[in-house]
């Protein structure tokens, strides 16, 4: 009887623990600071540190790479008239992921897919099914900061390479859609070096445009992205828009980081690849 009593007590304790802890490990926390601003900018913290990180990576044969930090700065004032150009959040690029921080607190991590098309690497980023099909390429995966559980996927639609859907990994629901746009004016600015990409991106939810992302490059400044959203945009959608902006910051604004990521993954796969047996 004593044994049964202890077992039952442990079971009840485990259930209470899972009821309290499980939601915290399967759901991203809101980021209130994003709700106080309608415009933010993603920019690199220190371009010299980026160049040094790339140099050390090359000199040490890919065995050493210091994370590259980006800043998410306010582009407008909050309701109290404060906050313009204030650093709201930071993001650090590692060879395997991008990690978003608020101070020292990890908010989420983003795993990027391989940019070149190596079949072994791309197979790791196929969807597991759902409305888009199992062959839909995944641009990125948003993961929980503690558990590492996949929370969202940025999936390229099969109908158009310039459209993506951000879906929930838990409920497989479509959270929002992203579409690339361009025009002659933007193409001219890109050709003259005033912007680093001729495209900009809009984000829609239930048919309504809720956010826009624009590449920026002022004179004597480094590449950056400007994000803007409506006042009604939910905190989750603002966070997802920011995630897509961070992905495009690496893929479009600083493609050298994408090359480093690809090389690091290939090197890791070669290390773990089994050695063929001699005849």
Automatic annotation (TrEMBL):
<protein>
    <submittedName>
        <fullName>Uncharacterized protein</fullName>
    </submittedName>
</protein>
């Amino acid at each position: 009887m004593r044994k049964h009593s202890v077992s039952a007590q442990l079971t009840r304790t485990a259930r209470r623990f899972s009821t309290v802890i499980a939601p915290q490990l399967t759901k991203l926390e809101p980021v209130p600071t994003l709700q106080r601003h309608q415009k933010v900018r993603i920019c690199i913290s220190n371009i010299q540190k980026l160049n040094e990180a790339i140099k050390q990576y090359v000199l040490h044969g890919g065995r050493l790479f210091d994370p590259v930090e980006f800043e998410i700065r306010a582009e407008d004032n909050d309701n109290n008239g404060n906050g313009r150009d204030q650093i709201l959040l930071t993001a650090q690029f590692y060879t395997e992921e991008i990690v978003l921080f608020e101070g020292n607190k990890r908010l989420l991590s983003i795993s990027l897919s391989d940019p070149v098309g190596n079949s072994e690497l791309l197979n790791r980023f196929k969807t597991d099914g759902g409305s888009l099909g199992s062959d839909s390429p995944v641009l990125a995966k948003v993961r929980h900061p503690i558990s590492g559980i996949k929370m969202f996927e940025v999936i390229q639609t099969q109908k158009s390479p310039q459209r993506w859907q951000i879906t929930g990994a838990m409920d497989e629901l479509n959270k929002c859609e992203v579409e690339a746009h361009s025009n002659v004016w933007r193409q001219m600015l890109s050709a003259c070096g005033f912007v680093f990409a001729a495209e900009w991106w809009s984000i829609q939810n239930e048919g309504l445009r809720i956010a826009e992302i624009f590449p920026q490059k002022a004179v004597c400044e480094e590449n950056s992205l400007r994000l803007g959203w409506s006042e009604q945009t939910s905190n989750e959608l603002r966070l997802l828009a920011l995630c897509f902006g961070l992905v495009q910051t690496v893929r479009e604004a600083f493609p050298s980081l994408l090359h480093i990521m690809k090389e690091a993954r290939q090197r890791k796969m070669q290390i773990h690849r089994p050695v063929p047996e001699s005849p």
